[in-house]
Design a protein that fits this description.
- By secondary structure, this protein is mostly helical.
- The chain contains 8 helices and no strands.
- The chain folds into 2 domains: about 70 residues, no CATH class; about 45 residues, no CATH class.
Amino acid sequence: MLARERCLKYWCKIIRSRTNTIHSTSQEQCDSLLNKGNNWGFKVKQAIKRLGLGHLWNNRDNATNFFPVIKCRIRDQFIQEWRGNINSSSKLAYYSMFKLKFEFESYLSNIKNDTLRKTLTRFRTLVSYRIW
C-alpha cells in the first residue's frame, strides 16, 4: 500500500512540474513505450486503472493535484480487501469479532513496557489463531 502511494505521489509531482526535464522524459516514456508493458509509465497507468481512476491518466496534462484522491482510493481498496480476507477466513473468525476497524491499536502506544506489549500482542495473535 505504502509503496503504491509513494509511486503515484511521485507521478503526480512529475505531471504538475511541466518545466522539469523529468516531466518531459516521463511523458515521452509514457506515450511511446506504453504498449510494451515493461516500463514505469505503463505500471503507473495500470495502478491508476486498478483504482478505478483511469480518467486521471487521460487528464495528466492538468495541473490539478490528484494525489489526495488517489491516496484515499488506495486506502479504501486496501481496507476493503483486508475486511474481505478476514471475513472469508475461518481462522480469523475470533479476530474479526474484536477487530472491527482498520486502525492503530492504542495499547501499542499506551503500554510502555516492551516485554508486556509483545506478550499481549503474541497472546492476541495466538488466541485468534488457535481458537479455530
